[in-house]
Design a protein that fits this description.
alpha+beta; six-stranded mixed sheet; single chain; globular; four-stranded antiparallel sheet; 9 helices
Length: about 300
């Protein structure tokens, strides 16, 4: 009787991981929380369950909230060092669509001084202690050990990215990383330079009744700003128009009682700039929206 033939399958080559995922896993192994960026170099938008923060997640607060969504949700708050999450089905799908890798500097105990042009780089070389430097398209990232609050437009062409923010990974850089200096921490508590910063806080009268402004309720105002940020982040076309209309909507709701601060405006500008808008476009859109509303 003929014995059945045993067929041994020779394992074939394993599917090659997307290049962004390979980079992400390498960074995660060094305890750097990472996330994918899609076309436009922006984070993936919230899934349907997390739209408008219905899940309770709050990516613009100090903690992302109770959400444990398995999808690539909540921008910087989704950044992780867990390889099981990074290679999960939902994340793997995102990595195949990703154009680059970002990381949460504050989550890694780092601060990135984002120098947007040659003038800003020249200022840093004269003012700040040397540290690890990474070249960008138009300027440089200076990376320091130590985390701090993030803030944009601290001076012309200079943003600070650390906690509650993300930065693109553009390579290992050169030079030795040094401790975060007071000169950088001080930048975050100074008023932005008017010529290049977000506009000053809106200072319009409160309601005719003269009572306490309802928008000063933190949950109400923060939810409105978070929804506006998400509207900008998730747009896939007509970015200029979306930014202007979003600014108009925010000002029509919150602009007549003086409740908006530089911090709120900076959050909106950050979302718009992440979509490719320049600071000048943001400033013009904000000014035009104020003019239309008579503010």
């Amino acid at each position: 009787m003929t014995q059945p033939t045993t067929i041994r399958r020779v394992p074939g080559p394993q599917p090659r991981l997307p290049e962004p995922l390979q980079t992400a896993l390498s960074l995660a192994a060094s305890r750097v929380p990472v996330l994918p960026l899609r076309r436009g170099k922006v984070p993936f938008g919230n899934c349907r369950s997390c739209t408008d923060n219905a899940c309770g997640g709050r990516p613009n607060m100090k903690t992302p909230g109770p959400c444990r969504c398995p999808d690539v949700c909540h921008a910087w708050a989704a950044a992780t060092t867990d390889p099981a999450v990074l290679t999960s089905p939902a994340w793997t799908t995102a990595w195949h669509r990703a154009v680059t890798v970002a990381y949460h500097p504050g989550g890694a105990g780092l601060t990135v001084v984002d120098l947007d042009d040659t003038a800003a780089v020249a200022w840093a070389r004269e003012t700040l202690p040397a540290t690890r430097t990474v070249e960008t398209t138009r300027g440089e990232h200076w990376i320091y050990r130590g985390a701090m609050v993030s803030r944009n437009a601290v001076r012309p062409g200079v943003d600070i990215k650390s906690t509650m923010s993300y930065a693109r990974h553009l390579g290992p850089g050169t030079g030795t990383m040094t401790a975060l200096p007071d000169a950088v921490r001080t930048l975050a508590v100074k008023e932005p330079v008017p010529a290049r910063s977000a506009p000053h806080a809106v200072s319009a009268p409160t309601g005719a009744g003269g009572g306490e402004c309802r928008h000063r309720t933190p949950a109400y105002l923060d939810r409105g700003i978070a929804m506006a940020e998400q509207r900008i982040t998730e747009t896939s076309s007509a970015v200029h128009t979306t930014v202007y209309r979003t600014f108009l909507a925010v000002l029509s709701t919150h602009g007549r009682c003086g409740c908006l601060t530089d911090g709120h405006v900076a959050r909106l500008f950050t979302a718009a700039q992440a979509k490719g808008e320049t600071l000048r476009h943001c400033t013009d859109a904000w000014t035009n929206a104020r003019t239309r509303l008579g503010l």
